[in-house]
Description:
This protein is mainly beta and about 150 residues long.
Amino acid sequence: MANQLPSGRVSAASASGQLPDGSVEQVSGGGDTTAPVLSSPTGTQTGTTTATIGATTDEANGTLYGYVSASATPPSSADLKAGTGAVWSGSAAVSGTGANTLNATGLTASTGYYGHLLHTDAAANDSNIVTSAQFTTASGASALPKIIQQLGL
């Protein structure tokens, strides 16, 4: 029975992999099929309109995608990568295992958000999606005290 090999060559190996001369042909499998694993998601406000989101990964390659929304429900992998429906989305190259972070901007002051993260490795394997605990951006400075002072009240 003829079998087509990954190289496109055809082998005359039987279903057991044995060639007509009695030898056995070894065919190795494909590349990386192991998805990265994300854990320990974080979300921390860093200002009135900014935050840092991140997670720990076990692979040192590929891309980390981040997505900030007001919902604790994670988006689909496709929506997370595309940023569909996000208040903020972004990505960065992953160059090491351990904690990796992204800086979110353009958020609204005094608002609760969740960070959702996904790691796609260099072989296009998607990790699990992790979601941070809710974080709230800092409140904007009120102009009221300055106005009261200017009015002499």
